[in-house]
Amino acid sequence: MRTSLSVRLLTLAAALLLFAPAARAAEVTANDTARFLAGMAPSAESALTPLTRDPAWQRHAKFFDQAFAQLEQRQIAKIRAWSDANLAAPKPTMFYMFSGPDFLYANAFYPKATTYVLSALEPPGSVADLTTLPRGGVAAALHNVERSMASILSFSFFITKQMKTDLHAGQVSGTLPILYVFLARSGMTIRDVKPVALDDSGALSVGVDAPARSTARGVRILFAGPDGVEKTLYYFSTDLSNSGVKASGFLKFCATLAPGNSLIKSASYLMHAGNFSTVRSFILANSATVIQDDSGIPLGYYSSKRWRFFPFGSYRGPIDKFPGRYQHSYADLFRRAQPIDFGIGYRWRTYETNLLLSVKLPDDGTAAEASAVPEEPAAPPPRPKPRRPRPPPPPPPFGFWYWR
To answer: Considering 77, 132, 144, 222, which has the largest number of Cβ atoms within 10 A of its Cβ?
Structure first.
């Protein structure tokens, strides 16, 4: 009797030991999911590891290895070097309005930030347990992620229409999978991912207890870099127009993290119009520095007594898709611009890129310290400018050309 009982106990113990690794392997963490979507090997014990033997994932990994290596050499390493040389004491918080899921450039320009606040209209979406997708589902998801990121890998900005088409509602949708890819490819380790929402007072709810009528919903991602310092990324899907921010509480939440630094890139010239004056005023009031291209805040809204300007590159006016946004004072300022060795924004070629670093002066700063840039009216009338023949553009990287 005792012998039989002992045998059964030993058999049970052996079975538990046998199935314990399988149970641990069934756990799919956000960090492993991010690495898998980014074409990087997940942890050895992850249930995603067997899926890396699929030829579709191996092709995806090879594609992203090549794409991000080229992007690192062409832009990201140069942006980090520019940031080190020109940003002496960045604030812990950085604001990136009209960003989409562009953590890549947020981190490149402000790598020392510990809190990133990104915001745009695109929904946060979701990423399901990839091991539960039907046959062919993983390959389709990887393909859609590649297509949705094609423009930012090639030109430094998202084409919203393309991203909406490729990351439609489904098990891998919205901005979250792209945030995952950028975090993983930036060398970050994801520790926690939670849905978030704001009420109209700006109070933050984390997890399932979000306000039912919130107009600012998103995701909070806790992550760490190679140095182990824990950082926070917020992405909010919200309307940044005047009526939108009045109802959402988004800027009230941002004010609790201010002052910060701001990045504005490929922003469709929205803050040139009166309908986005509230977010424009918030950025100017709550930023110690603003890095932008000419699609950001018009120069006339900066007070030359409070800001000092450092132009880089060459100002050639807006692209043809945005007529009437030429800024004469911007052109005057860029006559003394310093050279730049990377491209950014709609004019993504290095030889025609413009980048403006605006640094807020301390309260005791004087007008003499600021750049002598004349302020211009809020809506200056467009003036014809001579057109110069353009050299034929080089073929875009990776064979993508979606924007017209």
So the answer is: 144
The CA distance from 160 to 167, in Å, is 10
Query: Residue 162: what residue type?
Result: Q
DSSP string, 25-52: HT---HHHHHHHHTT----TTSTTGGGG
The two counts, helices (H) then strands (E), for the chain are: 13, 12
Residue 172, classed as helix, strand or coil, is: strand
Residues 6+ apart with CB under 8 A from 354: 293, 294, 311, 312, 313, 314, 315, 316, 330, 334, 337, 345, 347
Task: Encode pLDDT of 37-61 as tens digits.
Answer: 999 999 999 999 999 999 999 999 9
Which is nearest to 119 in space by CA: 246, 264, 224? 264
For 66, 89, 183, 210, 302, the CA distances from 167, given in Å and listed in that order, are 22, 37, 18, 24, 37
pLDDT at position 4? 52
Partners of 93 in beta bridges: 115
Which H or E run includes 10? helix 2-25
Name the nearest CA neighbour of 166 among 139, 141, 133, 185: 141
How many C-beta atoms lie closer than 10 Å to residue 195's C-beta? 17
pTM: 0.82
User: Identity (one letter) of the amino acid at 142?
Assistant: L
The answer for residues whose C-beta is within 8 angstroms of residue 152's C-beta and 6 or more apart is 102, 104, 158
CA 226, CA 187: separation in Å to the nearest integer?
Answer: 7
- Amino acid symbol at 143: H
Q: Quick check: 238 and 250 in contact, CB under 8 A?
A: yes
Q: How many angstroms from the chain centroid is the CA of residue 258?
A: 19
